[in-house]
Amino acid sequence: MPKVDLSDGIDLLIHGVxxxxxxxxxxxxxxxxxxGNKLSGFYxxxxxxxxxxxxxxxxxxxxFSWGGFTSGAASRALWLLLLPFxxxxxxSWMHPATLPRATPWQDKRVRAYxxxxxxxxxxxxxxxxxxxxxxxxDMLAWKSPKAADDLTRPLGTxxxxxxxxxxxxxxxxxxxxxxxxxxxEPAGTSTATPTTPLMNATFWSTKQTLRRLRLAHVMTASxxxxxxxTGPLALAGLLRPASTVCSLVSLxxxxxxxxxxxxxxxxxELDGATVRSRLATWVARASYLFAVGVVVWLLASTRVGRGxxxxxxxYHRVLTGxxxxxxxxxxxxxxxxxxxxxxxxxxxxxxxSALRGLxxxxxxxxxxxxxxxxxxxxxxxxxFVARILxxxxxxxxxxxxxxxxxxxxxxxFLWESLNALILLVVLVIAGTIVVRRLGKMHAxxxxxxxxxxxxx
Length: 456
Description:
By secondary structure, the chain is mostly helical. The chain has helices at residues 22-26, 83-91, 108-142, 152-181, 207-235, 242-263, 266-270, 278-300, 315-346, 359-388, 411-453; strands spanning 10-14, 31-36, 41-45, 60-65.
């Protein structure tokens, strides 16, 4: 790639979702890639050929093509499941300005900010599989009339579906990592002195840490699946002592997952350290095989009735506690962001910060809303869908009883979705007010700046 000088700025053209080619944006058949790759890259007219100058201004003209992110197999639609985690990843770099500007991860408060977000992302994983447990464990096993005398078979079938879902999610996240993160190249072609993380060569190469984070989420999800299957059995006094031992092991794996995400600091790799993940790899694989083993054990166990119980023990308390933990984590994120905001305000950097520096917590809140809505749609929507499916779809016989009055989902999800919608409306209204006020405040300055740069 040719050396690129950004000291005088550039005029950047960015296409829409139609994926316009760089040649069409630059009105030239011969273009060269100056940064990026085939997924997304920056292009210029070939400097070796005679080209018409930029008619709008004296700056260099570039085109940014990101069509590689949207083109491909239809299976990419499944990546929508990872949307909440993508929002959290974006929020991790939306903290207020700090010194040094090119390497903000060296600030301890920024590392605390990002560690809180990593823990919050882990709670989203737990929420995702707790909601699945509310469907396949609570509604299809503990609340199903067909499971009154045979709890282990429907429980093993439901947990097997959750384990398969985890395998699919693991595959999707690994493919995304291989496509975007593992192939990332350090962006060291610029001749300008780095002043922001985007210009730092190491910013684009964090594949080791991201791999370890993915393994931590697999470990935590496997532990959540096992706990949702064996924990209620242990509380109900069924299939002991095996159910108690499995529950304790799953709690230990949950603790290991939390420790691993807290210690998986992106700053270490960005500072040039080697991030080891061999142990995490083996533990994640063992935890998934542990979940598979629990499924086989439940299917092979002798039939056990649930007695007079009509719901999964402690499910409502676990769900309420998880939501409370997420609220506490978001509050902690807000407090740390305010600390960073105070420092940025002292440096007079807040004028150009979105939402006065609070855009990171706002993005995390949107991720929480998205994750909550996914969980609510899974738990509440699936029974209604199952009612209208043809009988041959209901392979396990106990699925046919879906929709009975005794098998309604936990109302906590319904209240969470309503609260999420209210929060979303508040954020949209607040964002609209802020944008309009800033637009009125800076309209004159913006007009003068545009006129000076583009006099024609």
